[in-house]
Amino acid sequence: MRYIKRVILPLLCCVLVLSGCSSPFVEDNTVEEVAPVTFWSLNKGENGKLEITTLVPPIMNEKKRLFTLDVDLLKQGKKEFNLKFYRELKLGQLRMLLINENLAKKEVISLINTILSDPDVSPRLYLVLVKGNFEEYLEKEKNEKKNLDYFLYRMFRHYERRNQGEMTIVNIHEFMEKVYSPYSDPVLPIFKVNEKKFTYEGTAFFKKNDYVGSVKDMEDQMFQLLANDHYLKNLPLSPLKVSLGQVRSRVHMKVDRNYKTLSIKVHVKGRIDEYRGHRNILSSSEMRKLNKDIESYLQGQSMDLVKKTQKLKAEPLEVGAHTLSPLLQPMSRKEWLNYYENMKVKVDYIVKIEPLSL
Amino acid sequence: MSSRFVLFDNTAITGTGYIFAMVNRMQMLYYILILPKHLMHPYMILGIIGVGILSQINLLILSYYLKSNYSSQGYLGFVQLFGERLVRLFAFFGLFVILVKVIVTALGYVEIIHQFMFPSMKTSWLIFFLMASSFYIASQGMEKTIRLGLIAFLATIWIIVLYVPYFLPPIAEIHHLYPLVPGEISIHSWYGFLMIWSALSGPEYLICLGPWIGPKEKILKGLSIGNALSVIEYLILFVACLLYFGSNYLEKISFPVVNMLRYLQSPVFERIDLIIISLIMIYVLFLIALLLLYFYGAVRIAAGRIKVPTNRKGFLGSAAAIFICMLIINGWYWREGIELNIWTTLQLWLGAITYFLVPSFLLIAMKWKRGSS
User: Fold this and answer.
1) Under 8 Å CB-to-CB from B135, ≥6 apart: which residues?
2) Chain B interface includes A123 (CB < 8 A)
3) What is the Cα–Cα distance from A218 to A220, expressed in whole angstroms?
4) Neighbour tally for B8: CB within 10 Å
5) Per-residue pLDDT averaged across A279-302, rounded?
6) 10 Å Cβ neighbour count for A267?
């Protein structure tokens, strides 16, 4: 009798509860019954609607399928998807949010907030801006590359880990943290896409939550050195016919007391990977001249980048953070940006390079 | 059933380690999960240190009572100090205070489970499971419950290590900590101090554990270590939140301490937050069990039935009453938002007041008694 009360009764209760008879657990996560997606691609649809697209990865022997839905709300997409497809959509594996550039000009924050508020979705979700028609690319590539979405994710992850440089990689938390931070503005990577290619183009600058401009090529490389990862595996300087490798930078920014000048000192270390110019760089005096050329070239390029951000009144370089100190009260963002816009900029590069080794 | 149902037996005395574990876990309850959002400004780091020192002074006062003979006699000690009628009145007020504390702790924790783990589950089920488990623990008696305190401490203290990555770049942005000095102290920041004070409350509940704790000369040591550890934990969690979110963003996050854990990545478990939330349950259960026992004891004192032996029916009845109150409040009004809800605010004030008044009140009563006799 006692045994029954002690062991069997609670066991019976548990079995009853877990086996579905008025079970408190509602959700079913059986693998065969759910469709985990790895990304959402968002585009501007017709009549102010959102067009959202995703690929459903195969679980059994079936082909990848592309789904495109026109919706007013992001989460409506989830619902409509479930009505269309025999498996239930789950966002637990969501890794990327690709936002079309045209849509980003209109709004970003509300979309990101929706995603962020979902406890299933990790705050490490990558955010990407896309230029061009990503859907067309998907349509074409999904048959040729078997794990297209997964490989895209691997690429982002590869460049994010250990801050490998080369490209800007931003996740949802980093983006939001910058949106709310008064002395920095978020950035996002831009990828250019057409029917055949999906390639990194540069970095998009935001002002609070508005997409205001972007940099590419040389300016983007300068951005990587000044503000993003401080590292570039490869830095080709085509006008000088030289290519630097393993470039690492240390940046010191200083704003003077009256907020009139900004001096940026950048120490760059690296080595020459390739040289096809006319100087004989094995001679040390010629090498020194090349060094000077590189310094002044980088100076000029960086200056352009800083001026561009000044013109945009955006803070992707986080210059304002250097005016803060533990004991001083900070000024408001607006005040700072007014100063920043009219600041004189001085950029100094100190380049130390190992010569080409043969 | 032939076995005796004894809740308040007292066969062995628990050591300093238990006091320290209990004080620390009592101070690390629900409030730490929401506190960083309400403190927000970096200068509140100084606030936490300052209030921590005040709390230490308060514990010093408390230790005078705990060391005295009145304390080791438990209920009889209170009767000697105040007389039976007054003790019954205090117990009656105590019922209300305990009730609010249990409800806020349980519902706050259930809300976290609901939000992060089982969004589709009915909260009343979660409350039921939580209450049933703590009822089981409490029914093992006071001694075993106190012993669980140490287990709860050991099982959960290591969680603090998980917050180390938030101090390392690139996650940490050092300029989020500036400025460290306040420009002007607004009403909001005074309220922040009050919240820290209330969050550190809890040790005052030890006054009812007099017969169980000892050795007497080491009580202050146990209290101080527990309090210091809590303050350090508060500092670590708050600074980690600031470095990770920054003040402006922090304000918008409902459970920053839990939310942060979602950013950690482990190759084995993707959602570390789920494991941590479940672990937190151990000490929430411990505390609810302890407070259930307190509640039942207070009911007996208030009803004047202290001489009647404890029985299952009475204990179950008082637990059921708390459970029903919880369900009502849960259905009525419970939602964590930008502002504290009415019950959390109530607990905030009650906790702050009891923590402030109880130790000094007891000390005054003791001095007065000594003077008059």
Assistant:
1) B289, B292, B316, B319
2) yes
3) 5
4) 18
5) 87
6) 14
Q: How many residues does chain B have?
A: 373
- Considering CB atoms only, which of B126, B179, B259 is closest to A330? B179
CB contact under 8 A, B181 and A327: yes
Whether the CB of A13 is below 8 Å from some CB of chain B: the reply is no
Q: A24 and B125 in contact by Cβ < 8 A?
A: yes
Exposed, middle or buried, B327 (CB in 10 Å: 0-12/13-18/19+)? middle
Asked if A180's CB is within 8 angstroms of B252's CB, the reply is yes
Give per-residue pLDDT as tens, B178-211.
888 887 778 888 888 999 999 999 899 988 888 8
Predicted complex: ipTM over 0.95: no
pLDDT score at B4: 65
Distance of alpha carbon B110 from alpha carbon B255, whole angstroms? 13
- Taking only the tens place, the pLDDT of each residue in A89-123 is 788 788 888 888 888 888 778 788 888 878 888 88
How many Å lie between the alpha carbon of A277 and the closest alpha carbon of chain B? 38
Q: Cβ contacts (< 8 Å) between B126 and chain A: which residues?
A: 24
Chain B residues within 8 A of A330 when measuring between CB atoms: 178-179
For the stretch A307-345, pLDDT in tens is 888 888 888 888 888 888 788 888 888 888 888 888 888
A68 pairs with which residues across the strands? A53
